[in-house]
Amino acid sequence: MAISQWLALCAICLLGAASPGPSLAVVLQSTLSGSRRAGIATAMGHGFGVAFYALLTVCGLGILVAGLPVLYATIKLAGAAYLLWLAFCAWRAGEPDAAELPSSGRTGFRRGALVALLNPKLAIFMLALFSQFLAPDAGLLHAAILVVTAGAIDALWYTAIALAAGTTAVQRGLTRRAPVLNRCFAILLAALAAWVIATTL
Fold first, then answer.
1. Could you tell me which of 30, 23, 29 has the C-alpha nearest to residue 46?
2. Phi/psi of residue 94, each to 5°?
3. Of the ranges 47-56, 62-71, 90-99, 110-119, which one carries the lowest mean pLDDT score?
4. How far, in whole angstroms, is CA 26 from its chain's centroid?
């Protein structure tokens, strides 16, 4: 792959990662309820999920997901259900007398991976993206570069978000406002879930 092609791929992947959505809310909420480490683990998990969808697309399975409306809708509804569960957890964390909900690195990684894997729009995005860069005669190395680049840029973007949100000054301010912020995250995640359900059914 030419360096100019790779830079174009990086730019598109970065724009895709930077677009606001449930992933951003989950990374921020993990950082708030746990720590910077939990936020970074969530970022890593999300990058893993993106890389997995990239791998499926390179293998041609992304076309299968995009071409089967029932499968696509099922994954979307499963994703909405998971967002509702995260909203419930965030709402509980916002209760004044609630015990702090644990948010370990393992929990954060799982959250990030599931948010990505239960978002079939990633498969559509990868199809549109990789169609510009994956030639029929492309070798294994070319495909590996596509997959690693997509996953790494996504993970690095959300890691930067977690690092920024986890700085001492920001963390101190977030901690003071934790109950209100957790309630806001809960409402945002529930609204996103409702939008997914409304656009799917």
1. 23
2. -85, -5
3. 90-99
4. 8
Q: Are 158 and 43 in contact (CB under 8 A)?
A: yes
CA distance 170 to 72: 39
Return the biggest CA–CA distance within the chain. Answer: 60
DSSP state string for 48-61: HHHHHHHHHHHTTH
Considering just the CA atoms, what is the radius of gyration of the chain in Å?
18
Convert 11-50 to b/e letters by CB count within 10 Å (16 or more is b).
ebbeebbeeeebbbbbbbbbbbbbbbbbbbbbbbbbbbbb
Alpha-carbon span 172 to 165, nearest angstrom: 10
Phi-psi region of 60 (alpha: psi -120 to 50; beta: other; left: phi over 0): left
Entry pTM: 0.76
Listed ranges 27-31, 33-37, 91-95, 167-171; the one with the highest mean pLDDT = 27-31
Paired tokens of 93: 């964390």
